[in-house]
Amino acid sequence: MSFKKVAIILLLLALFGLLPYFGTPYMVVLFGNIFMYVVLTLSWVMFSGPTGYISLASAAFFGAGIYTAAVLSFKLPVIMIVLMGATVGFLLALLIGVITLRLRGIYFAMFTFGFVELLLYFVLWYETNIKGTTGRIVFTLGNVTVYYIMYILSIILLLVMYILNKSKYGMALKSIGDNEIASEHSGVNVTRIKILVYALSAAFVGACGSIMATRLTYIDPKIAFNPLYSFIPIFMAIFGGMREIYGPIIGSFIFSYLQEVLTTKIPYYYMLLFGLLMIFIIVYMPEGLIGLLRINLIKRNRS
Question: What is the model's pTM?
Answer without folding.
Answer: 0.90
